[in-house]
Design goal:
Blueprint lengths: L1 H28 L3 H12 L12 H22 L2 H33 L4 H10 L5 H10 L6 H13 L1 H17 L5 H33 L7 H18 L4 H13 L6 H26 L9 H24 L6 H9 L5 H13 L4 H20 L2 H8 L11 E6 L7 E6 L18 E6 L2 E3 L1 H4 L7 E6 L4 H8 L9 H4 L2 E4 L4 H8 L12 H8 L9 E4 L2 E8 L5 E7 L17 H44 L6 H15 L30
Antiparallel strand pairs: 1-2, 2-5, 3-4, 3-5, 6-9, 7-8, 8-9
């Protein structure tokens, strides 16, 4: 027994070491790191070079559930309240209705492809309906893809909040299948949804409040604070699940509350959670890889790939488009959100539930879900950066690389020590003044400790210790960071720069371009905010007369701090505009244009019909004059013409009465335009 335990410890530790070192290959070749962890488990399994026999589905689900709970708690803890405010509406709609739409579309295709009962087909749709938080967070945060705040926030909040909905649907459908369903399945699902989501949200808020209260009031050893935080999060997960609520939603909401509260030792908790989250991801992916048996995939490869392609190119795009239509995202942003719908360990974990609960098609669903996940990670995970470039939605970074260490002051939740290693090309190293609210407390230079007043100007390579509120750290990053890629690009940011409060009239006099009379007292920031819709980002530009105004620097609230000026307007490159994902305003505009065209066509048809009728009557009158009454007097000629005019106004079209058109002398000759017969 002891030897077996030692062997398990040895194998598990070796797998973790191998997974960590293979991450170096992932960073070099750009492969999705979580896919690498999954392949490590496959390679170590019974069909791989490791030959490890592992078929304990309940144990795999247990390990995966704990790992997912820790990942969701960390996801909520890292989500800033500002991010939630920006993306609360669209992300929550995606996390609920988006999951339902995806479940329905994939369920219908599964019913056709796998030839299973429709309830089982819906179950598979629920299994693969949610995006993977670990994959999305890794690719966006570690992958270095810089997006507009609204797009990034929507993806992050959605990926962290849609797992509870998928878990709810999966477990509810499994229970309905085992119990044989009911007379009103939709009503039963609605009741379960209200119970699980409602209890999950309430217990999550209560648990987050209790966690913060206890950490702030109970004096604990600093090293124990992160441990008890993790233990309390898992306790909340278990208690909420036992009481019938969604434990996954509860830990996410608790992390969201705790991460945005003034909790003591939050820096240490955050650092510890980074470690445990990485370990949880590795453990979950490797375990799920071990559970899979690739030799059984032969019969489901083709159906799995078909379902994956339908998921990527049909179900996810339709769900995203319908959910985001009313939030007026641009087409390119909607397309990118649709593409970043990676499926990962959550789908494989949920695919274990039918196996554990004894659903007859459980093994089939697990194998198919595994193929869908691998296809999604290969197709989407490998191309996210290329897709962002192709759609043209990457924005310049606010600052370059920054070397920073956070040290929390004991017993104080409002201040922390931030240690910066000054970059050679940073703003402070080139003469920029450090704000008064962030005066250095200590400077380390060449191994010597110096007082700030005796150290002189800050130099590159110095280590600067600053005591500051946590909310100001991001502002300091811009001072101590190196230059962002393209930060000094003249084509991107213009030839000259001005403070945001500079009047446009002053710049116009300096560079000789005309300024509108209504704009003489406006600043350049006010001009940009007036004429550019939505949140302003770095690089946004607009023409003004013969020059261009460019957003050069912004604050955290998208307020303009610095404006660039391009003396010569560049010929704007046409932005790629895809033909789908129209927003609500675009659809309304299309509808109005269609209605306008239909009215124009109808009016043109009525006008042509009226003109044709009048011409026929007119030609008939001429023929009668020539053949029958060649010597009709002028008075009779006028009378015939008046009769033609009266008849033209009463001609019906398809049995319907036609309105009398306006008289057009160019198309219907009048008395003055007729040549009289002698």
């Amino acid at each position: 027994m002891i030897e077996s335990m030692n062997l398990v410890i040895l194998i598990a530790s070796i797998l973790v070491v191998v997974a960590v070192f293979t991450s170096l290959v992932s960073f070099r070749v750009g492969a999705p790191l979580l896919l690498v962890f999954l392949f490590v488990g496959l390679a170590a399994g019974e069909d791989g070079i490791g030959g490890i026999m592992f078929d304990n589905a309940p144990l795999a689900y247990f390990i995966g559930s704990i790992a997912l709970a820790l990942i969701l708690f960390d996801s909520g803890f890292e989500t800033q309240l500002r991010t939630l405010k920006i993306a609360a509406g669209p992300s929550l709609v995606l996390a609920t209705f988006g999951v339902l739409i995806t479940t329905g579309v994939i369920g219908g295709v599964t019913w056709l492809v796998l030839d299973v009962p429709w309830l089982v087909a819906l179950l598979f749709g629920a299994i693969v309906s949610s995006t993977d938080a670990a994959a999305v967070f890794f690719l966006l945060r570690v992958g270095g893809i810089n997006l507009r705040d609204r797009t990034r926030s929507t993806l992050e909040v959605e990926s962290g909040s849609n797992d509870p909905m998928a878990v709810f649907l999966t477990i509810s459908l499994v229970e309905l299948i085992i119990l044989g369903g009911g007379e009103n399945i939709a009503l039963e699902l609605l009741q379960r949804f209200i119970l699980q989501i409602g209890l999950g949200a309430i217990f999550g808020l209560a648990g987050g409040y209790a966690l913060v209260w206890m950490i702030n009031r109970v004096k604990l050893e600093p090293g124990l604070v992160p441990i008890i935080t993790m233990a309390l999060a898992l306790s909340l997960f278990g208690a909420t699940s036992i009481l019938g609520g969604s434990g996954f939603l509860a830990v996410y909401v608790a992390g969201l509350y705790a991460g945005n509260s003034n909790m003591k030792m939050s820096v240490g908790v955050r650092r510890f959670q980074h470690v445990t989250t990485w370990l949880a991801q590795i453990a979950m992916f490797v375990t799920l890889g071990l559970l899979a048996t690739p030799s059984e995939f032969g019969t489901v490869v083709l159906p799995g790939v078909i379902l994956a392609l339908v998921l990527v190119f049909v179900a996810r795009p339709v769900a995203v488009w319908l959910c985001l239509m009313f939030f007026n995202f641009s087409r390119n942003d909607t397309a990118f959100i649709s593409w970043v719908g990676l499926r990962g360990a959550v789908s494989i974990l949920l695919a274990i539930v039918p196996m554990v609960e004894g659903v007859p098609e459980g093994q089939l669903l697990f194998n198919t879900a595994f193929i869908v996940v691998i296809t999604s990670l290969l197709l989407q995970g490998w191309t996210i950066r290329r897709m962002a470039h192709w759609l043209g939605i990457i924005v310049p970074a606010r600052h370059g690389p920054v070397d920073r260490i956070d040290l929390e002051l004991p017993g104080n939740a409002n201040q922390e020590i931030v240690v910066y290693r000054v970059h050679e090309a940073s703003a402070v190293a080139t003469g920029h003044r450090i704000p008064r609210w962030a005066r250095p407390s200590l400077i380390l230079r060449d191994g010597a400790s110096l007082r700030p007043h005796s150290a002189g100007p800050v130099q590159g390579g110095d280590q600067v210790y600053i005591i500051t509120p946590p909310k100001h750290v991001e502002l300091l990053d811009q001072l101590f960071a190196g230059p962002a890629e393209g930060a000094n690009d003249v084509e991107l940011f213009g030839d000259f720069s001005f403070p945001a409060d500079t009047r446009i009239a002053d710049i116009g006099r300096l560079y000789g371009f005309a300024v509108d009379a209504d704009d003489t007292e406006r600043t350049v920031a006010e001009i940009l905010e007036r004429d550019l819709p939505g949140d302003l980002e770095l690089g946004d530009r607009m023409p003004y007369g013969t020059v261009e105004l460019i957003v050069r620097r912004t604050d955290d609230e998208h307020g303009v701090l610095e404006v660039g000026l391009a003396v010569e307007q560049q010929k704007a490159k046409p932005k790629r505009r895809i033909p789908i994902f129209q927003s609500r305003s675009e659809l309304l505009a299309i509808w109005k244009d269609w209605q306008k065209r239909k009215r124009a066509e109808k009016n043109a048809a009525l006008s042509d019909q009226t003109s044709s009728t009048a011409k026929q009557l007119d030609d008939g009158s001429d023929e009668a004059d020539v053949t029958e009454t060649p010597d009709v007097p002028d008075a009779s000629d006028d009378m015939i013409e008046d009769m033609a005019d009266d008849t033209a106004g009463d001609t019906p079209e398809d049995g319907a009465e036609t309105p009398e058109p306006e008289e057009d002398s160019s198309k219907k000759p009048g008395k003055a335009g007729r040549s009289k017969k002698s």
